[in-house]
Amino acid sequence: MEVISDWKKLSEKWKHGACALGTFDGIHRGHQTVISRAVEYAKEHGVPSVVFTFSNHPRSVVSPDKAPLFIEDAEVRRMHMKRMGVDMLFEPLFTEETAAMEYKDFLKLLKETLAPSFVAVGPNYTFGRMGAGSADTLKAEGENFGFTAEICSPVFENDEMISSTGIRRFIRLGKLDEANKWLGHPVTAYGEVMHGDARGRLLGFPTANLELSDKAVSLPKGVYAVRVTIDGEVYGGAANIGSNPTFGIMEPRLEVHVLDFSGNLYGKKILVEFLKLLRREEKFPSIQALIAQMEKDKAKAEEIFRLQADSLVL
């Protein structure tokens, strides 16, 4: 899959394809329906499949104080797109100039640059200044701009429409099972392993330390069973999101103990998928009590990893 972020670098080979339009934060089951439809159309008609989304959330420009925290790292979003068979991901920056575009000017720009023959969107898709253009607008205007538009049906879970807003709510509240169900894949963290204080190694549980972004929605403090991908290899693990209250450390961090792994992870980028909450963060009366609980966490994490080993891995 090719990734392009500059309008000027779009080439003729991406024109007349099937294009999915949307914000696509989290690539939840509703997003997957839209993207899959574009990929399906592209294969049926022998044209390229393209996803057009912005690298930043439009609200970060239109109303910065109301901009949502992102669900997944941009690189994770690309992993999902590639797995789904997308040929090209176009992710330019949403700017004040973009925000000021009238919806017909946006359609003109779309025709001049990508000239899609088919466009797939979700029912809540909007575009143009003040969101004046809608999914229905695309259907009505499509013929004038050389494409056929299809509005994909929303996906529901327990009579509630799946949305990024709902998933953020689940993640904040620690409802991991619900978040994973709505996403259709586990909540993830992705980043470069950094040097920590090596306390885990001294306790017999070496950990890979990842920085928690203040721009991403985070699960509550606690210990989680996780799946870890390192250089394409998949391992089980137990991850702690918290501040290590037993040692009086207050700065939140993500520490991942990777099962059955030995090696140097510093500087490597790893993918951590959260499978199940094991327990909330707690302060232990002694280091011995902490170690005893960590052994229990490790055993439970191993069991959960084995049960979910065959589910989706990016």
Give a written overview of the molecule.
This is Riboflavin biosynthesis protein. Residues 182-306 form the Riboflavin kinase domain. InterPro entries: FAD_synthase, Riboflavin_kinase, Riboflavin_kinase_bac, Riboflavin_kinase_bac/euk, Riboflavin_kinase_dom_sf, Rossmann-like_a/b/a_fold. GO terms for molecular function: ATP binding; FMN adenylyltransferase activity; riboflavin kinase activity. It holds the Pfam family Flavokinase. With 314 residues, the protein is an alpha/beta fold. The protein has two domains: 2-157, 3-Layer(aba) Sandwich (Rossmann fold); 187-307, Riboflavin kinase-like (Elongation Factor Tu (Ef-tu), domain 3), CATH 2.40.30. The chain has ten helices and 16 strands. The protein has helices at residues 29-45, 59-62, 74-83, 96-99, 103-113, 135-141, 164-173, 176-183, 199-203, 287-307, and strands at 2-4, 18-21, 49-52, 88-90, 118-121, 126-127, 133-134, 148-151, 156-157, 160-161, 187-192, 208-210, 222-230, 233-242, 253-258, 269-280. The strands form four sheets. Strands 1-4-3-2-5-8 form a six-stranded parallel β-sheet, with helices on both faces. A hairpin with a 2-residue loop joins β9 and β10 (160-161). The longest helix has 21 residues, at 287-307. The protein is elongated and about 70 Å long. The two termini are 14 Å apart. The mean pLDDT is 92.
Jot down its keywords.
Elongation Factor Tu (Ef-tu), domain 3; Rossmann fold; 6-stranded antiparallel β-sheet; 314 residues; 16 strands; alpha/beta; 10 helices
